């Protein structure tokens, strides 16, 4: 019989390894020694006279003041990290004075940028349809653990604070009333977030799925995301069913038929190839 093995992810690949196998850790002595040898040039650079001289020059130029927050600073930092741009390591144009706090923030942002997810075969699902047709429920049932979900109603409720009521009360009727009573001034802010989000998902594909939940289809999406893998979905729930759900949720239905007709008209006008789906 062969020895027992276990499945491990090593360097991003799944491999069967002996059960006693350990991956290399940061504390592994041999590994650290090798890394230090490779980093020797990098470490010794900060001990050179050339660096000390340049550093003093930059501190003088910046009046030992953090260029980001204006407080006293004594860290001379590479704007483009020296590891990424070794040639420019002594160029004062690439150096700035920072305080400890701003330096920590910058380092953290750089770390996040470097360690951010790899490119994925990201699919964008635009879920449109009548109010209370079950859009959020559909997404909740189909999303994976590495998805981005933009839900207009939820984001608004989060920004206007009504989500706080939902999280802090057990009165379900109060929840339903607060969550859909939107503050008109909030719309601009939700819109800004939406537009920034679109710009970013257009530029990078780090999610498995992006879900955009909205009532009326956004015309701009057809051209803006044309290069991406976009799928248009609509919940196959009848108008009558939506109205009765809205009644059960104690929500105002004065404009509901108008909104639903707008949805139909827009889908027609945009000539969208739309897939009808059911919540279940
Ligand atoms: Zn600072």
TrEMBL record:
Keyword annotations: Hydrolase, Nuclease
UniProt-listed Pfam families: HNH
Any one cellular-component term (Gene Ontology): cytosol
Superkingdom, taxonomy of origin: Bacteria
InterPro entries reported in the protein's UniProt record: HNH, HNH_nuc, P-loop_NTPase
GO MF annotation list: endonuclease activity; hydrolase activity; nucleic acid binding; zinc ion binding
Start and end residues of each HNH nuclease domain: 53-104
Family: Belongs to the HNH nuclease family.
Protein name: Putative HNH nuclease YajD
């Amino acid at each position: 019989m062969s020895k027992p093995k276990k499945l491990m992810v090593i360097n991003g690949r799944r491999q069967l390894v002996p059960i006693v196998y350990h991956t290399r850790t940061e504390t592994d002595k041999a590994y650290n020694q090798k890394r230090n040898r490779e980093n020797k040039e990098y470490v010794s650079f900060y001990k050179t006279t050339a660096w000390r001289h340049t550093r003093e020059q930059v501190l003088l130029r910046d009046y030992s003041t953090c260029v980001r927050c204006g407080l006293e600073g004594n860290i001379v930092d590479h704007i483009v990290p020296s590891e990424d741009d070794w040639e420019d390591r002594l160029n004062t144009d690439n150096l700035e004075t920072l305080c400890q706090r701003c330096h920590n923030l910058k380092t953290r942002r750089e770390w996040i940028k470097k360690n951010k997810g790899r490119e994925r075969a990201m699919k964008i699902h635009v879920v449109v349809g009548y109010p209370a047709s079950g859009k959020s429920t559909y997404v909740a049932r189909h999303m994976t653990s590495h998805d981005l979900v933009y839900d207009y109603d939820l984001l608004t409720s989060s920004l206007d604070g009504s989500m706080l009521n939902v999280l802090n009360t057990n009165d379900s009727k109060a929840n339903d009333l607060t969550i859909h009573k939107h503050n008109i001034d909030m719309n601009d802010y939700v819109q800004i977030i939406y537009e920034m989000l679109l710009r970013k998902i257009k530029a990078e594909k780090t999610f498995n799925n992006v879900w955009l939940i909205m009532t009326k289809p956004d015309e701009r999406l057809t051209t803006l995301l044309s290069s991406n893998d976009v799928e248009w979905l609509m919940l196959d729930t009848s108008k009558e069913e939506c109205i009765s759900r809205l009644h059960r949720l104690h929500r105002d239905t004065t404009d509901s038929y108008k909104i639903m007709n707008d949805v139909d008209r827009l889908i027609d006008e945009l000539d969208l190839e739309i897939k009808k789906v059911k919540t279940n």
